[in-house]
From TrEMBL:
<dbReference type="InterPro" id="IPR011991">
    <property type="entry name" value="ArsR-like_HTH"/>
</dbReference>
<keyword id="KW-0805">Transcription regulation</keyword>
<feature type="domain" description="HTH arsR-type">
    <location>
        <begin position="252"/>
        <end position="326"/>
    </location>
</feature>
<dbReference type="InterPro" id="IPR001845">
    <property type="entry name" value="HTH_ArsR_DNA-bd_dom"/>
</dbReference>
<dbReference type="GO" id="GO:0003700">
    <property type="term" value="F:DNA-binding transcription factor activity"/>
</dbReference>
<keyword id="KW-0238">DNA-binding</keyword>
<dbReference type="GO" id="GO:0003677">
    <property type="term" value="F:DNA binding"/>
</dbReference>
<dbReference type="Pfam" id="PF12840">
    <property type="entry name" value="HTH_20"/>
</dbReference>
<dbReference type="InterPro" id="IPR036390">
    <property type="entry name" value="WH_DNA-bd_sf"/>
</dbReference>
<dbReference type="InterPro" id="IPR051011">
    <property type="entry name" value="Metal_resp_trans_reg"/>
</dbReference>
<dbReference type="InterPro" id="IPR036388">
    <property type="entry name" value="WH-like_DNA-bd_sf"/>
</dbReference>
<protein>
    <submittedName>
        <fullName>Transcriptional regulator</fullName>
    </submittedName>
</protein>
<keyword id="KW-0804">Transcription</keyword>
Amino acid sequence: MHRIHFTADDVARVRLAPTLGPMAETLFSLGTLRGRTGETVFGGWRRRVRSGLDARSAVLAAITPARKPWFDMAILAGTGLDLAESAETFLASPRRAVRAELDFYASHHGRVPTTLTALVDTPAARREVLSTMEAYHHSAVAPHWTAIRAHLDAERARRGTILLGRGVDGLLSGLHPKIQWRPPTLHVDCGDQFDADLPLDGRGLLLVPSFFLRNPSVMYDPGDPADCILIYPAVLDVDHAVGVWTAGTATRALANLLGRTRASVLTAIADGVATTGALARRLDISSAAISQHTAVLREAGLITTHRHHNNVLHHPTQTGLALLDRNHTPAVRVSR
């Protein structure tokens, strides 16, 4: 059990974020892939992903052994909202930070696989592990990422509404069955053997939902004044899951027609990512490339574009929505 202790200042500094990013969700998905819980939600995804794993799965097993703690690439990779940013952060991680993660890993598992010990001093080893994670991400998570991100955005919005209407007490009281708010302490059952008291001491708490994580998780460094982060499982039922997995299937089919990147651009625009800059950040490609893709989509009659103050905004046409098999009104969001 983790006990997070609040001061009055910490209560005032509770914040919400939609995701730790694709690298963290990819790491969390490995635990779900190995597990057996949530079969009605994740069963089909597990079978599809397991059937495609290759010899590099040994590296994935080293990163996320059956018993926690894992080698926490999410901490080393930071909270970048695109895979490329997280990859750069991981490759540039200080040796002492990597060593600290490996020491914590070794203190609970006895030995550290050679694949991981080499990460301290060998850049090629980091690139190899990163390449394995990226390959797994592209097969297991990327086909569904747009729908997953939309689900997490909706989760954050829902929690924000609760915060506005019922305050911090209402928010913390209903996060998850394994999270209990007994002011001034938040009791978090992370489903592991660890027991810790975590005083916030003015850090505040950042609440982040996860699509794949099945138990809450806490990121806390007593020597670091940065936010304590509580990652909790987002509300996910069969209907939500079907929507996510179906959207992934539709995205793959659309990619065969338009090309993967252009299909992703159209899907993101339909999700309400309206500006060229926001699209570039979401899809991790240059603004110039986005402009080329939106020009093709516009010429094909799948999107419209107009200027609003200093922003160039893109919106899907009815033809574009029909191609995506969507019959709802698209979201409108000006993203800078």
